[in-house]
Amino acid sequence: MAKMKIKKNDLVQVISGPDKGKQGKVISVNTETQRVLVEGVNRVTKHLRAGQPGQASGGIQVVEAPIHVSNVMIVDPETGKPTRVKTRVETVERDGRTKTVRTRVSVRSGKDL
């Protein structure tokens, strides 16, 4: 299974589907199913039965549903447009030790994410 380049709290834009063009913050990431939950995107109605623990009463609730990670792209912080992500690997020396540091970088502008 490939590693996902999208993390929690990233600003993403939907690139396909009914919500195409919408932007939102990633609420959660599920690596097993390759899906992300984006704030304000892919909203569905959920019917709740009365008397559930933690719920005062039943009714209809509108919640976000997961969307596949291939349908979203990270938004470039500089331009505000969707961009691909690459990884920059650097070696840093501290106290005589060398350490490898990986940083996510925007392909569009070259800025760190």
UniProtKB/TrEMBL annotation:
Gene Ontology molecular functions: rRNA binding; structural constituent of ribosome
Pfam families: KOW, ribosomal_L24
A cellular component annotation (GO) from this entry: ribosome
Recorded superkingdom: Bacteria
SMART domains per UniProt: KOW (SM00739)
An example Gene Ontology biological process: translation
Keyword Ribonucleoprotein recorded: yes
Domain KOW intervals: 5-32
Transmembrane stretches, start-end: none
Biased composition (Low complexity): 103-113
CDD domains: KOW_RPL26
Sorted UniProt keywords: Ribonucleoprotein, Ribosomal protein, RNA-binding, rRNA-binding
UniProt record similarity statement: Belongs to the universal ribosomal protein uL24 family.
Quaternary state and interactors: Part of the 50S ribosomal subunit.
Record's function text: One of the proteins that surrounds the polypeptide exit tunnel on the outside of the subunit.
Protein name: Large ribosomal subunit protein uL24
Native organism: Calidifontibacter indicus
